[in-house]
From TrEMBL, chains A, B:
Organism: Stichopus japonicus
Source taxonomy: Eukaryota, Metazoa, Echinodermata, Eleutherozoa, Echinozoa
EC number: 1.3.1.48, 1.3.1.74
Family matches, as InterPro entries: ADH-like_C (IPR013149), ADH_N_2 (IPR041694), ER (IPR020843), GroES-like_sf (IPR011032), MDR_fam (IPR045010), NAD(P)-bd_dom_sf (IPR036291), PTGR1 (IPR014190)
Subunit field text: Monomer or homodimer.
One GO MF term: 15-oxoprostaglandin 13-reductase [NAD(P)+] activity
Pfam families according to UniProt: ADH_N_2, ADH_zinc_N
Family affiliation: Belongs to the NADP-dependent oxidoreductase L4BD family.
Organism superkingdom: Eukaryota
Oxidoreductase recorded as keyword: yes
Protein name: Prostaglandin reductase 1
Subcellular location: Cytoplasm
Gene Ontology CC annotations of this record: cytoplasm
Catalytic reactions of this protein: leukotriene B4 + NADP(+) = 12-oxo-leukotriene B4 + NADPH + H(+); 13,14-dihydro-15-oxo-prostaglandin F1alpha + NADP(+) = 15-oxoprostaglandin F1alpha + NADPH + H(+); hexanal + NADP(+) = (E)-hex-2-enal + NADPH + H(+); octanal + NADP(+) = (2E)-octenal + NADPH + H(+)
Record SUPFAM superfamilies: GroES-like, NAD(P)-binding Rossmann-fold domains
Amino acid sequence: MKAKQWVLKKQFQGNPKSSDVGIKEISLPNLKDGEVMIECLAISVDPYQRLFVKNAKPGDVMYGEQVAKVIESKNADYPVGAHVTTFAGWTTHAVVPGDKLVKVPEYPPDVPIGLALGLLGMTGLTAYYGLLKVGELKEGETVYVNAAAGAVGTVVGQLAKLKGCKVIGSAGSDDKVKYLKTELGFDEAFNYKTIPDMPTFEQTLKRLAPKGIDVFFENVGGLAFRAVLDQMNVDGRVALCGAISSYNSTDKFTPSIPSIGEPMTMKGLRITGFTGWAYSAKDKNNDGLKEMIKWVQEDKLKYPGHNFKGFENCFKAFLSLFTGDNIGKVLVTI
Amino acid sequence: MKAKQWVLKKQFQGNPKSSDVGIKEISLPNLKDGEVMIECLAISVDPYQRLFVKNAKPGDVMYGEQVAKVIESKNADYPVGAHVTTFAGWTTHAVVPGDKLVKVPEYPPDVPIGLALGLLGMTGLTAYYGLLKVGELKEGETVYVNAAAGAVGTVVGQLAKLKGCKVIGSAGSDDKVKYLKTELGFDEAFNYKTIPDMPTFEQTLKRLAPKGIDVFFENVGGLAFRAVLDQMNVDGRVALCGAISSYNSTDKFTPSIPSIGEPMTMKGLRITGFTGWAYSAKDKNNDGLKEMIKWVQEDKLKYPGHNFKGFENCFKAFLSLFTGDNIGKVLVTI
């Protein structure tokens, strides 16, 4: 069996360029006991992959998760036809040992299998654990989430509403703002690109969250980070799951956030960095996933997304994460 | 009774100037029931007072804690001769109601009463709660503390050693570095003023903490903040008690810390801002203070400090906090 793979040709410098990557074809080996052959159904593109490239070598397959169908099996736990997720990278086919596979649970009818990479996968669970475990959200509190129209942010806002909270989101276009308010039920939303400076940003938060912010779900980084801290309440929590504004920076010491000492100490704030993976690994019974599936069945969660079609569009899909053109989860369906 | 008081004449802009403050004399009122008259023994000067001035008005007495002796009393709980601490500000005498006083416990012989403002007061307890509660320090871990020769840092290092940990400190002169290593038992110490750039700072930390840093006791802020995060271990904790590098800044959005998203998320780090006061208030039985007094009795804690003598030197003592001339706790004894 042949497989097509996206490989790194050259480490990214600043903004990733199409000349940094390429597609090659390889022949897959025969199966050994315990292994299966998978055919990719959809590939997840995510901002974190930008960071992983920093530790990759030229020739490495682009890192990432996919949902796939087992097409040949020497592992009784994963028979032909089973749906799995795995970190096989950007590849159309692969031979994978059973211990690198996660079985996709039976979905309700009409729920697309791609959700295993989004709402019912890494990004949805990142929102779930970040808001409810890291952020320790309590009923009646106020949440602010940036990159609110993204794969994680769209879920954060909906979960906050399910938990009886007020939620404010920021996004990069008027269309996104409208979508957040009319389709996803955000209480407030604003287009950060129309905000001219940090004092105006602070006034905007003050106006939209007059009782202050209790939980800040942070995906972005940059100057605004400090402005949000200044609007937080005593004992506020920051669930820090990303900092997309800095991922393409070539110098990690380029100043981009002002000192946070004053609001942190005076208000006893806590910032916790986390990944959905780390929390999923601790959640032995998959309680998070079970609760999310229940909400999907009850029609309580929407799952906007943008599907790029065709394996050759993986890199284009990846670049779209940094231009902010999409609402919800970005996938490549094969 | 007359009292001398330091008052704010003009809000500080950038570095505090002596023309921003002045001394005035007032007449104290007669005591009402429940009140006492106190005579100041020593005044604490601390970096946090720089922040409090931002909320003060011209004419306000400079904010701060003092240890004092009761010289007249209409409160049976605080008889004449009792030692108390109170936030009466920079004043030689004051009339204070009983509910604004804290009794100083009986000290072991030879222990100076000024420790009620330092090792056995706010700064010592800030080190105690920050390292042991906020930082959740465990035996065998590695601690890095900056401003290590300061009132809080000198205690942090000693407590870390008492808890069987490795401790690395940074300070602003070779004399301080020598003092930390030879007198206070720090495992490693370095003079940050001799470090030419951030890559060298990182290499220094890597060399001195080859197993990585588990707890970062942060007093400073600035660019180095990010460099330390990069040397921290998975699940590391930052106890953020101050950011002296930014206190005299006139623009809170002057960038001074680079984005922290990458190390925070990838390593699941946690930053908790705190004050010693907030934790003292939670510690209803004063367990922290009792443990600290026990260690002093057992001769396990040293208490370096610099006493400015005379009420007229309060502002000079305060300015010395920002020039880094002193080791340990800075007090003004009256």
